[in-house]
Design a protein that fits this description.
This protein is an alpha/beta fold. The protein contains 23 helices and 28 strands. Strands 5-4-18-17-16-6-7 form a seven-stranded mixed beta sheet, covered by helices on one side. Helix 7 links the parallel strand 9 and strand 10.
């Protein structure tokens, strides 16, 4: 194997790759020895090097001048502007007037130092990150039911060895193509794949059974499956008795979810509900995987609870080649939420309200426990309060394009414009950076060292392969400089990734996500190490639930949940459901992928996907442009007609901005537990059809 070993900058699979050549002529190869991707990469991974020397790359700080124009600036001047602005805002409005917004794409070291900057240098409770819109519902449900939040509490390789897989609300054929090899291997062994999705996606077409449910009806479907299993005596009664608690309340709830009722609610034929339940009930091993389709809802936590209930009732959780897991989206979506970016967390997945946790982390940081702030508002609530009394007046954004990715995005864009100071760290002038008062150019994935934690809880090393362009600094250098200016170099002594990781290890020691026994040397030597790993001679924990549940009583907990439906129902004025998602060629807000020629050619513009019957109903023909509206705004998309859509549902991808921004349409109704916005379902209508040759 030639080239420098590292990992892909995109999704939570963190596929291993080797990188060689030079910026502008980067050569990438998949690493066949890494068990997650086994040499495979998706088109985004193969082309990831093209962003490194892109002509739109930022190589100088930008500061908004008296004319309102972002103009090149020296680093010293830009940092002075930030320091002065933060101090002025906090002096006038209090410490909580400053805020920090991070990302699931940041390395563990960056996530850790960003959280430390918020709590130690700014001493603000206003810190959260875009992972709140990715993993929070699954995390909340997993912690309450199983006592641990780890995307997959088992290695990816287990997927190929399960008799039955239920994949809920995830189109991995487009979003995580290398994962499909494990599903193919499972099918080749004689296994069964059940896909739950409102659309007939590429993943659904590979399934044995496709349950095409109405958006927002996931809990009803899961309860219906469990109803059939209870009725037919297909439960693991011994597991329920010996290792769980609370099942009788769940049994009582699902008694009313008979298949005929479930068909009326979900649209899934009762025969398919019966068949899926039979396949699950007969399986020796089954894995249930949830994705954003089920989780990005105002009842996302309940949806996940319903599917965890199903896995527990079958006795699959903690069993080899079986269990429940969630498909982590962002590159460091797992590690990014473990070390201090979330409003309620300290490093090691500790609660910021726990006195013992506060004391431990304060001692590592060398500050007084009473000086640490308390828990703050969630991501959307933080952003929606910008510029208002008691809210954030100055915001530091690192690794997130809020203008494109936020629900009800026009509302959030207005709030960003109300800030006294907006600082954005990015390597391109994203839509969010274009609104900033100061933009700092940062290094990319192949230009710095650091660790990430994959969806399976495996710590991995990203190696620096190239030096950043002249004028560009790493995020760690930026965070260290700001921390030293605001709180002193004693508290922020270094920007070296390895030294920061060693501090993170100490801060995480004894916490649920304990990294203290993991070193850079071990990760390199062993190809990754699973947390928790409390000692350097500890082997790591690839299957943390195999030996028991880390709940207070040592038992997994069932949670009875009812179907409630979306926050915004359809009606005569808004007769269609709108759902959103990702495409093969693009990633998240598209800041990187929309600038890569090969990917832009594959998917040059967004579209609205609808059934032929829906198109006929609204007078839409191929080639038309369709103005889709919700109660929050409207956006324009090219029409794509298909047999793969329900006749009551529209689908649009969310990677674009401006008048093609899908999140102009989405609703910010929040899950009461996770504070996840309902990005995946809202009521919509076709407001206008623009025929070829007409002016939009």
């Amino acid at each position: 194997m030639t080239g420098s070993p590292t990992h892909c900058p995109y999704c939570g699979l963190q596929c291993a790759m080797t990188v060689s050549g030079r910026p502008g002529a980067v050569e990438i190869a998949g690493d066949p020895a890494f068990p997650v991707n086994r040499g495979e990469l998706c088109v985004k991974g193969w082309t990831a090097g093209e962003a490194l020397a892109h002509p739109e790359r930022l190589t100088s700080p930008l500061v908004r001048d008296a004319r309102g124009v972002l103009a090149p600036s020296s680093w010293e001047s830009a940092l002075d502007r930030i320091e002065h602005g933060l101090r002025e805002v906090q002096t006038r409005h209090g410490r909580d007037a400053a805020g920090v917004f991070g990302s699931g794409s940041l390395t563990n070291e960056k996530a850790y130092l960003l959280g430390k900057l918020a709590r130690v240098a700014l001493r603000t409770r206003h810190v959260d990150y875009n992972g709140r819109w990715c993993m929070s519902s699954a995390a909340a449900a997993a912690r309450a039911s199983l006592g641990i939040d780890r995307g997959l509490p088992f290695p990816v390789e287990d997927i190929a060895l399960a008799d039955v897989i239920v994949l809920v609300g995830a189109n991995v054929a487009e979003t995580m193509p290398p994962l499909m090899q494990h599903l193919r291997a499972q099918r080749e062994r004689g296994g069964t794949l059940i896909v739950v999705d409102a659309r007939t996606t590429a993943t659904a077409r590979a399934a044995t059974v496709h349950l095409r449910l109405a958006p927002g009806t996931d809990t009803a479907l899961a309860n219906g499956l469990l109803h059939v299993l209870v009725r037919d005596g297909r439960l693991d009664e011994a597991f329920i008795r010996d290792r769980t608690e609370g099942f009788e309340r769940v049994r009582a709830v699902v008694a009313s979810y008979w298949p005929e009722r479930v068909e009326r609610v979900t649209g899934v034929p009762e025969g398919l509900v019966e068949e899926a339940a039979r396949l699950l009930g007969q399986a020796r091993t089954a894995i249930i995987l949830t994705g954003r389709g089920a989780e990005q809802q105002s009842h996302g936590t309940e949806n996940v609870h319903a599917f965890i209930n199903l896995a527990l009732a079958l006795g699959m959780v903690g069993k080899r080649h079986a269990g429940w897991g969630c498909i982590t989206g962002q590159g460091n979506g797992q590690g990014g939420r473990e070390h201090g970016q979330k409003a309620d967390q300290l490093p090691g997945y500790r609660s910021i309200e726990d006195p013992a946790a506060r004391a431990h982390v304060a001692a590592v940081w060398g500050v007084r426990e009473e000086d640490l702030p308390r828990s703050g508002p969630s991501a959307f609530e933080l952003l929606d309060g910008m510029g208002r009394d008691g809210g954030v007046r100055a915001l530091l954004v690192m690794g997130s394009n809020i203008v494109v990715s936020s629900p009800d995005a026009s509302r959030i864009e207005r709030r960003l414009r109300a800030l006294d100071l907006l600082v954005v760290c990015d390597f391109f002038l994203s839509e969010t950076a274009a609104l900033a008062h100061v933009v700092l150019p940062t290094a990319q994935w192949a230009e710095e060292d650091g660790t990430t934690t994959s969806l399976e809880g495996r710590l991995l090393l990203r190696h620096r392969v190239f030096a950043p362009p002249p004028g560009v600094r790493t995020d760690l250098e930026i965070l260290r400089e700001l921390g030293a200016r605001l709180a002193g170099s004693r508290l922020f002594p270094t920007s070296d990734a390895r030294e920061i990781f060693d501090e993170l290890r100490r801060a995480s020691a004894g916490g649920p996500a304990d990294y203290s026994g993991i070193t850079y040397e071990r990760i390199a030597r062993e190809g990754g190490v699973f947390w928790p790993c409390p000692r350097e001679d500890h082997p790591g924990t690839p299957r943390p639930l195999e030996s028991g549940f880390p709940t207070p009583g040592g038992r997994a907990r069932f949670h009875p949940v009812l179907h409630h439906g979306p926050a915004e129902p359809t009606d005569d004025a808004w007769p269609l459901w709108l759902t959103t998602g990702r495409l093969l060629a693009h990633y998240q807000s598209g800041t990187q992928t929309r600038r890569i020629a090969a990917l832009s050619t594959l998917a040059p513009e967004p579209f609205v996907e609808m059934a032929f019957s829906t198109a006929e109903r609204f007078g839409v023909a191929p080639g038309d442009r369709v103005v889709v509206a919700t109660r929050r705004g409207q956006a324009t998309f090219a029409a794509r007609l298909t047999d793969d859509a329900r006749d009551d549902t529209l689908f649009v991808p969310f990677h674009w901005s401006g008048d093609r921004r899908a999140n102009t349409l989405t609703i910010a109704a929040l899950d009461p537990t996770s504070r996840m916005p309902e990005l995946k379902v809202c009521a919509a209508r076709i407001a206008r059809v623009v025929k070829p040759g007409e002016v939009a």
